[in-house]
């Protein structure tokens, strides 16, 4: 790898070990083996490099989530009951959330910085639609190329809202996380108007 790639890998490591805001340029240099001047040369600033690190880390995490089973019970994705598939995919995602706490903590930290960091907000805003499209593809068990843009916008936002909320909840109450089955049951009851029904 060249210095540019080394710096990005070092920044991603620092993101997990120290967090977004606490990482210094010297931390990145120590983690990457590059020199301080190379940050400015390749990325313009430490902040620009850290923005790229959070986006790259998120994309890598999203790509790994895309490898989760597309359907429950071994059925083909298109043949599976939608709620069964929904539950099975969430179970796999929740397992990742539970075992990758440093990544989740970094994601939640960045959410808190968005209101006061316009450049960070803009950088994440640019890739957010692609993330929603990827989530729709995962939950529907289809390639990204088959996801309708309107479905990606509406349903993708729904999945992103659930994912973000579950990430935050995992840091606050890790022992009280819902299962994929719980989420599917909640969705069924809400859409059937049975929220107050104990059945």
Question: What's the arrangement of secondary structure elements?
Answer:
Layout (H helix, E strand, L loop, with lengths): L2 H16 L6 H8 L3 H8 L2 H20 L16 H18 L1 H13 L4 H23 L8 H24 L7 H12 L8
Helix pairs in contact: 1-2, 1-4, 4-7, 5-9, 6-8, 7-8
**Percent of residues in helices:** over 70%
Protein structure class: mainly alpha
Total helical elements: 9
User: N-to-C SSE series?
Assistant: HHHHHHHHH
Strand-residue proportion: under 5%
Quaternary structure: single chain
How many strands in all? 0
Query: What is the molecular shape?
Result: elongated
> Sheet with the most strands?
none
User: How would you state the average pLDDT, rounded?
Assistant: 91
Query: What does the radius of gyration come to?
Result: 19 Å
- Name the poorly predicted regions: 71-75
Q: Please report the distance between the alpha carbons of the first and last residues.
A: 58 Å
Protein name: TetR/AcrR family transcriptional regulator
DNA-binding region: 24-43
InterPro entries: BetI_C, Homeodomain-like_sf, HTH-type_TetR-like_transc_reg, HTH_TetR, Tet_transcr_reg_TetR-rel_C_sf
Pfam families: TetR_C_6, TetR_N
Describe the structure.
Helix content is 71%, strand content 0%. The protein has nine helices and no strands. The chain has helices at residues 3-18, 25-32, 36-43, 46-65, 82-99, 101-113, 118-140, 149-172, 180-191. The protein is elongated and about 60 Å long. The model is unreliable at 71-75 (pLDDT under 50). It comes from Streptomyces decoyicus. Residues 1-61 form the HTH tetR-type domain. InterPro entries: BetI_C, Homeodomain-like_sf, HTH-type_TetR-like_transc_reg, HTH_TetR, Tet_transcr_reg_TetR-rel_C_sf. Keywords: DNA-binding, Repressor, Transcription, Transcription regulation.
């Amino acid at each position: 790898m060249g210095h540019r790639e080394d710096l990005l890998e070092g920044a991603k490591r620092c993101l997990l070990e120290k967090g977004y805001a606490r990482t210094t340029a010297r931390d990145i240099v120590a983690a990457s083996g590059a020199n301080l001047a190379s940050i400015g040369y390749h990325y313009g600033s430490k902040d620009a490099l850290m923005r790229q690190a959070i986006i790259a880390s998120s994309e890598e995490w999203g790509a790994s989530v895309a490898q989760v089973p597309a359907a429950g019970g071994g059925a083909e994705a298109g043949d599976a009951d939608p709620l069964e598939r929904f539950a099975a995919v969430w179970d796999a995602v929740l397992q990742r959330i539970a075992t990758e706490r440093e990544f989740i903590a970094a994601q939640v930290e960045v959410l808190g910085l968005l209101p006061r960091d316009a450049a960070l907000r803009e950088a994440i805003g640019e890739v957010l639609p692609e993330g929603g499209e990827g989530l729709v593809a995962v939950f529907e068990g289809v390639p990204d190329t088959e996801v309708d843009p309107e479905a990606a916008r509406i349903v993708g936002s729904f999945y992103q809202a659930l994912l973000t909320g579950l990430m935050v909840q995992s840091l606050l109450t890790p022992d009280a996380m819902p299962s994929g089955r719980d989420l599917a049951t909640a969705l069924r009851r809400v859409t059937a108007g049975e929220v107050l029904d104990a059945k």
